[in-house]
Write a structure and sequence with these properties.
With 242 residues, this protein is an alpha/beta fold. It has one domain: P-loop containing nucleotide triphosphate hydrolases (Rossmann fold). Helices cover 27% and strands 27% of the residues. The protein has a six-stranded mixed sheet, sandwiched between helices. The termini are far apart. The site of adenosine-5'-diphosphate has 13 residues, from strand 1, strand 2 and helix 1.
Length: 242
Amino acid sequence: MNAEAPDRTLPAFRCSGLAKIYRTGETEVHALRGVDLIIPAGEILVLLGPSGSGKSTLLNIIGGLDRPTSGGLFYRDLDLVAMDDAELTRFRRANVGFIFQFYNLIPSLTAEENVRLVTDIAEHPMDAADSLSLVGLADRRDHYPSQLSGGEQQRVAVARAIAKQPGVLLCDEPTGALDSSTGTRVLETLANANRTLGTTVVIITHNVGIAAMAHRVFHFLDGRIARIEVNDRPIDPSGISW
Ligand code: ADP
C-alpha cells in the first residue's frame, strides 16, 4: 500500500472538547463549552440555534480565522491547534472558501475580476469563467457589482469561494440578506458545488427550512451541541419552504 495516498475516509473536521472563552476586561464569555463533533467529508451540514449559541465561533475556528481556548481540532490529518499563524494562513488559503451574509465584492472590479483575485493566487484554481458558469452567471462576467442584484452578487461570492477548489465551504448566513427566490438560487449553487466538486459545505442559518437540504443538522444551544439530526434524504434547495 502506498503510504502517501490520502485517506479518503478521514472526516473533514474532528473537534474534541473544543472550548472558546472570549475575555474582555473582567468579563468572560464562554462561547463554546466543550464541543465534540465530526464533520464528514463531502456532506452538507447545517448549523442551527439561537443567536449567541456559538455557531459563528465554531465556523471561524474550524476555518482557521480564530483559535480555540482549549480542545483538539483536526482538518483531515492536519492538527490545526498545533499550527503557528503562518501555517494556519496557509491551511486557510489552500482548503477553505468563506461565504458571509454580505458579499464583500470589490465594487471597482467586474464579476470575473473579483473571482480572478482568488484564482490568480490559488494553487489549483479552476478557470474564473468556469466558476462563474457553475453559479449560472457566465453571461454576467463583465458586470460590476452595482449592476447585479443582491442574489447575483452573492453567487459571484460563491464563484469566488469555489474557484480555488477548496475542500470546504464555510457559509455564515449566506442567504440572510436575500429573499426566498434569490436565496434558493444561492443555495442551489452551494448544493451544486457539493455534488459536482465533492466540496464539504457548512451553512449557518436562522432559516430552519434550509435544514432540509443538509445531510446532517447540528443544533447549538449555549455553546454546546444539543442535538444532531441525520437526514437520509436531503432535498433539492428548490423544494425548501421559507
Ligand atoms: P452565534 O453565531 O450562534 O450567534 P457567536 O458564536 O457569534 O454565536 O457568539 C457566541 C457568544 O460569544 C456570544 O455571547 C457572543 O456575544 C460572544 N462573542 C462572539 N465573538 C466575540 C468576540 N470577538 N468578543 C467577545 N465575545 C464574543
